[in-house]
User: Fold this.
Amino acid sequence: MTELLSAPAFMLWGSPVSWLELVASTLALAMVGCNMREIHWGWPLAIVSSVLYVAVFAKARIYGDASLQVFFALVALWGWAQWLRGHRADGSALRVSRLSSRGIALTLLACALAWPAVALFLRRFTDTDVPWWDGFATGLSLVGQFLLGRKFIENWLIWLAVNVVSVGLFIHKGLWLTVGLYAVFAVLSVAGYLAWRQRMPSSAAAAVRA
Assistant:
């Protein structure tokens, strides 16, 4: 089965696209579509897609993103539970909301710390040739995943930054199908933000605590 999934499905701009990458990208697109509509089935799709992408990224020596997929698969269980039974600090139901000013500051701080921390780890302990770009995508994705699980609309802005940088990273690695996927993800990040803004109840227009 592993050999079959690793076999080329077709060629794209001179680089082979494996069945593994094809299936993983299809599931990832379905996942984002579910997230945009607040459909909780996006989380199990995230688990399967992430497990497949571990192999895709490890083969390309993008170890930060490969490790991130393991994290995504685990955190997806938490996110699924949050969307099914989660609530705010005040006990209210978990609905689409904005971060408070304090929440925004903490989010920016988390991004500023996660990027160099992950990049320096990758530079020290792996043979990746793109530690800082890989570290950026990995570090900010950790923050974005938390905001998504807690239904904060700002998660889409984090994903936009991650997806734009990832496009350049995957171009460098020749993962052309994934380049196209993340370009679509970048567009969907904007669409997701607009969709969640429309879905946001008037009572959630004010910023709330996590």
DSSP finds eight helices and four strands in the chain. The chain has one domain: 1-88+103-201. The longest strand covers residues 8-12. Residues 1-88+103-201 form one domain.
